Amino acid sequence: MTGLRYEAPENLNAAMALLGGAEGSARVMAGGTDLIIQIDNEMIEPDLLVDIKNIKEMRSIDQVDGGYRVGAAVTGMELMEHEGFCATWPGVIEGVSLIGSIQVKGRATVGGNVCNSSPAADSPPPLIAAGATATIVGPNGSRDIPVEDIAVGPGKTSLAKGEIVVAFNFAKRPAHSGEAYQRFTPRTEMDIAVVGVGVNLTLDGDGTCIAARVCLGAVAATALLVDEAAATLIGTKVDEAALDNLAKAASAACRPIDDKRGTIEFRTDVAGVLARRVALVALERARKN
Amino acid sequence: MAKTHITTTVNGDEYEVLCEVDQTLLDVLRDELHLTGTKEGCSSGDCGACSVMVDGRLMCSCLVLGVEADGKSIDTIEGMADGDVLHPLQRNFLELNGLQCGICTPGILIAAKNLLERNPNPTETEIRFWLAGNLCRCTGYDKIIRSVMAAAEEMRGN
Lengths: 289, 158
Known about the structure:
A: Uridine Diphospho-n-acetylenolpyruvylglucosamine Reductase, domain 2, Uridine Diphospho-n-acetylenolpyruvylglucosamine Reductase, domain 3, 11 helices, B: Ubiquitin-like (UB roll), DNA polymerase, domain 1, 2 domains, 5 helices, globular
């Protein structure tokens, strides 16, 4: 692999020019925690690596219109150390804090975790439950899309050649709203989700759920935003009957694979159990907010 | 293909290195700078044996490209002792048998030092979670954790 070239542009235009002008295959590198292993193992043989970590707007966490804009190359540790973001989006932080070891989180980025498109990735379910959008910049300009529209299958995204995810946008959090993320793994640390569930819900002044988003990870080829599960909560006080319906709807939406980490039957059952648990955490947070 | 010229600071000393793009920082430290205290374990970011600090951040050097070290400041195990005087973590690992074969030890010491800089009084649970990315196949971890707790206590001046 003697032909590999490395560039670390300092602005988006230069990155676009490199990606657009590349002969052969070019890969965007953020934290590199997946990419470097793929190169080492000769799973991919790119001609050009475009390191985006020197692009300032991709490394910053900013408050915008009462919400947050998080650069796609912000590392897990950087996001976990941001007190304001952690207080507002604890479920997103619960997902991000599960992405590998401290060493890996010091490198790995949220943008990379989303764009690597692992079905079991821990940040997409809470990002999708939060209703986050991604700002994508490419040869044809800039567009914002829901995070759930990025992954289309294991290792595959909807991004066109030359496009990169620049930032994630989180709208202002409404009053009486809360979210949470949990996953099931055999071990407490350094493991990959067998099932992951993110729930985000909003209550009215009387404690009735007026909006909800439920996202399941590791039970299909991509994270699943399950409207039928959200519908079981809306209009209820998130009581036992609603939680039973939520669990059933979450399990019904699963289309998992059988593998060494979990059978289809197990994943389907656990998705319902976890959805109920996560909804209760989100509910408690919503009541305090 | 021409090698890339980088300038990097390792343990306070500036080095000029020629490296290939596909060489990791671990390769550069061990093969080019001959700083072999940083160990190669899995080379996939799972075991933590190659842990170093890059601009004050704990990382697996197998998951960093050598060319990325240009202009950065790297701290490795070779910079931990002050001349002949061991760091309290190093001394406590020796005194409390926090190592057996020793392959994981440099990475664990680097990671533990970073923890104590951020949190001088960690609980046992906090230490276990912080060191979850450092695998040891000999000790069963108990003596490692005790060594870190003893060093932390000593460094707090108790």
